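Q: What structure does this chain adopt?
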Amino acid sequence: MVLTTYREYGPLPALAPWVKCLWEMRCDEGGATVPMRVLPDGWVDLAVYMQPGPLPAPLNGSTTSAAVIVGLLSAPLQFELPRGLHIVGACMPAEAMRGLYGAELREFTGRVIPIADVRPRDLLAEEIADGPPALAMFRLVAALEGRRRTARPGSSLVSNAVRLVRREPGLIIVRDLAAQLAISTRQLERHFLRELGLTPKHFARIVRFDRTVREIQSAVRLTWSQVALRHGYYDQAHPIREFRAFAQVTPAQYARSLLGAVTSHFYNTDAAVAGRL
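A:
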C-alpha cells in the first residue's frame, strides 16, 4: 500500500503576481508505483523531483535534470510515481513562466521540458536539493524570489485577456473578450497563439473544464444535467465531449477514478488532499 499526500500553500505576497500556489507531493514507502493523471487546467507548473534515481515516466530517459516545466496542456499526461517520491513545485500563470525563463510559451504547450533545455546554466534543482527535505519548500520560495527580481514582463495584453477569461470561468465569448481589449478577434487570436500556443477559445474551454473538474471533486452532489447548466454547457452531452477531449474519459469514468488513482493538475485544489491507494 502506498499513501500519497498532496498539499498546497499560498505564495508570499511578493510572489503572488507570479505564483498561484506552491505545492508538495509525497508517496510514502510501498511496494508499487502509483499511476497519476495530470489534467489540463490552464496553468503551468514548475516541478522539482527531490529523490535520487530515475525520474518517473514519461520523464525517465529524457533528462538528467530533476527540475521540469509542465506546459499548458490540452490532453492528460500519465505518470508512474515511484515509492519514496517527493516533489515540490509551483503552479504559475503561463505568462509568468515566460518572464522567469524568457522562452516562447508556445514551445512548452503540451510538453514536459527540463529546465536545463531552456536555460542550461540554471541550477534550480541543485538549489532545492541542497538541504533537509523538510525545508525544500522554503528553498523553492527563495529560489523563485531570486529569479523574480530579474524576470522579464510578458505581454500585458495576453495577461489581461487571461485574467478576464478566468474571471468568467471560461464562459466569456471571444468577440466580447476582444472588444474589452479594444482589438479585433483575429488580433486576439494571433496574440494568444504567439504567447500561449493556444487560441483564446481553446484556452477558455480548458478554464471551464477545470472549473467543472473541481466541482466533481467537491462534496457537492449534482446530476450531470445540473453540472452542465452550472458551467454553461449547451446540454448534458456537451461536458461529456469536453471530458473526452481533455481527460480522454467520460465525466462518470473520471468520477470513479477519484476512488482509485491519484489525479492531478498537479492537483490545484484549494485544500490539502490525501488519498490512500
